[in-house]
Design a protein that fits this description.
By secondary structure, the protein is of the alpha/beta class. It has six helices and six strands; from the N terminus they run αββαβαββαααβ. Helix content is 37%, strand content 13%. The strands form two sheets. A three-stranded mixed beta sheet has the order 2-1-3, covered by helices on one side. The chain has a three-stranded mixed beta sheet with strand order 4-5-6. Strand 4 and strand 5 form a beta hairpin. It is rod-shaped, with a radius of gyration of 40 Å.
């Protein structure tokens, strides 16, 4: 049988191997640390905060209303949000002696950008709902709206009811929200109406 003889390492050689082993262990530990630590701390270091979108439709603290007709000082008035027609008339100096206060709803809440027209006492309902020869979908009564082609008394009543429930129309196209008014009817009256 063959005997193998293992010669013991010289003390210098043993010290050198220990240093290489220690260096290898340190390099492995650093490599693991570089790979593992960021993965473990990623969730806590990078906190994601959701950003809420700003809604452009958020009501502002003030509204601007154009008051015309039978008021002392016609023009644009600034009011707090939630103000009523009566507040707008007060800011415009109040009604003139010739004003027909029954021609408008004084308790209605105003909307930004709307125009309030105070009619003269004795003016007919149809003329109160006319602006520049066109029927105002925001001010006309049932009779004035009924004069439009394709709009009978039932749809005219729905327009007035919708307007009283939701406030004035903000565009001509918005009238198609009224039940019974579709795209074809809207196109038929578009040139005959105004806000």
């Amino acid at each position: 049988m063959t005997e193998w003889y293992v010669r013991p390492l010289a003390p210098d050689r043993l010290t050198q191997l220990k240093r290489i082993g220690a260096l290898a262990a340190v390099l492995v530990a650093v490599g693991v640390g570089i790979a593992v630590v960021p993965a473990l701390t990623r969730g806590s270091a990078e906190t994601v905060v959701p950003v809420e979108a700003v809604d452009a439709g958020v009501p502002s603290a003030v509204v601007f209303v154009h008051v015309v007709g039978e008021v002392v000082t016609p023009g644009i008035v600034e009011l707090p949000a939630g103000a009523r027609v009566t507040d707008a008339l007060d800011k415009a100096g109040g009604l003139t002696a010739a004003a027909d206060s029954a021609s408008i709803n004084l308790a209605r809440i105003v909307t930004d950008g709307e125009q309030i027209v105070v009619a003269r006492r004795g003016a007919t309902s149809a003329s109160a709902g006319m602006v520049g020869g066109k029927v105002s979908i925001n001010r006309a009564d049932v009779d004035a709206l009924d004069s439009l082609p394709g709009i009978g008394p039932a749809i005219a009543g729905r327009i007035v009811d919708y307007r009283e429930a939701h406030g004035p129309f903000t565009s001509i196209e918005a009238i198609d929200s009224v039940p019974g008014i579709g795209a074809a009817l809207l196109e038929g009256i578009r040139d005959l109406v105004t806000l």
